[in-house]
Amino acid sequence: MSTTYTVDGATSRATPVPAPMKRVTIPAIRARKAGIAAGTAEPLVMLTAYTVRTAQLLDPHCDLLLVGDSLGQVVYGLASTVPVTLEMMAAHGAAVVRGSHHAVVVIDMPFGSYEASREQAFASAARLMKETGAAAVKLEGGEAMAPTVRFLSERGVPVMGHVGLTPQAVNVLGGYAARGRDEAEAAKIVADATAVADAGAFALVVEGVVEPVAVAITRAVACPTIGIGASAQCDGQVLVAEDMLGLFERTPRFVKRFGDLAAQIDAAVAAYAADVRARAFPGPEQVYAPRG
Fold first, then answer.
1. What tens digit of pLDDT does each residue of 61-109 get?
2. Domain coordinates of the chain in residue numbers?
3. Is 87 a catalytic residue?
4. What is the pTM of this model?
5. Of 207, 211, 242, 249, which is the active-site residue?
6. CATH for 26-260?
């Protein structure tokens, strides 16, 4: 049995003490679709998380936390998500599970870990779930991946789909431009979404599509849709937490900044540096006096 996601709370700075709450379940997420459509349930809230402390801060406010392969760019400074490995996803996924007690934790399957065969996908998904404690995996792709989604779902692996702009396919797509601007591509994206949902996906990320496509998908599928650069009419929303918190200079068009943490960090570090250079830190409160 894997113990990757256990931690000694007595020695960890994060001290992840379980909160007195029950973690949201996959069936509960799927069941929200009907209530959202009827106006009796709130839309789903999802953000990315890559560390224990971030997970702790986001968890009380989110229904789902996504350990996205976007960590390749956000954490490691890579040009795309393509180089991300299973080892990276497992390490960060375990950290997020340790730091959360309420939200469903979903972990991305990185490029190259599931496309070759259904059996490869199951082996990768099983490893991620065992080593992290995550409740579900997410994979990109439409009709071509539907048999894999069904294979995993029938074997006890909850799958979140991802259609529209699929970052792992950036080299094929030729960039990160919005998808579905012409009728043929729009119809293909809707067909992809329907195929993945019908194959058993419990939820579906719809990324970077023109709004009518996102609305059509939301109306067409039985599982909840979670938009990013899509539409407020999706059943939920997801953003990269660092984007919405204002940690990067560049803000994608589909992101609303809900904070300006970069400026706050810059000011705090500048104040620290000034105190160090002036020998004002550490002060009497931060040093240890001899006994006696």
1. 999 999 999 999 999 999 999 999 999 999 999 999 999 999 999 999 9
2. 26-260
3. no
4. 0.91
5. 207
6. 3.20.20.60
